[in-house]
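Quick question about two entries, pasted in order.
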Amino acid sequence: MPRLVALGIIVTAAVAVAVALLRPPALRAQQDESYCRPPLKFAAGACVAQCPAGYEDRGRVCVFRSLSR
């Protein structure tokens, strides 16, 4: 019986590691241009109609532009 419990723990851990390695990073998935439906654009983790102040419009994605230069 203890062997079955140990085997179950090992299998569960192996599956959890496999899922974590195969899943794409959340941030990278959100930055994809297809994340927001047209005519919305992706900026600062959200879909927006216009790029907010400090962001440069690059089509379907708004890119942060540092204003300190």
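Here is the second entry:
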Amino acid sequence: MRIFDQRRHTRLRKNFQVTVRKRVSGIFDVLLEGNTLDLSQSGAFIKTEGWHFFEPNELTKPIFFLPPDFTGVDTPIGLQGDAVITRIDRENQGIAVEFVKSFREFEQIDLPDLLLIFPNMFLTHFRERHLGGQDLGG
């Protein structure tokens, strides 16, 4: 029998692209891409091919990419904030994170910064919205 897992906040089971920063040798950060399986005000589960690089209790700074169809604005929005890795899940190939501050308090990232982090997503969004899905060529 499974014990009911009561949570402080409702989980949204939605797939958002996310980038998680991993500090390597204390010198530089590596950005590992993934997708949320669920997200709440207090944490998220992030599926990423780089799950095995992380350790429980490690501090990280995920950046969540929220597309225009979710936010209701014309351009994608990036939100970043501090989180602690609470669990490594081999079976689901991902990490569970608990946010240091609530998700609504995450810092919004400006469009130029998002273009540096997520260039392919913006090209895809631009092609779909303005070129009917055509490739830009080149």
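Reply: The chain has a mean pLDDT of 79. The longest strand covers residues 28-39. Hope that helps.
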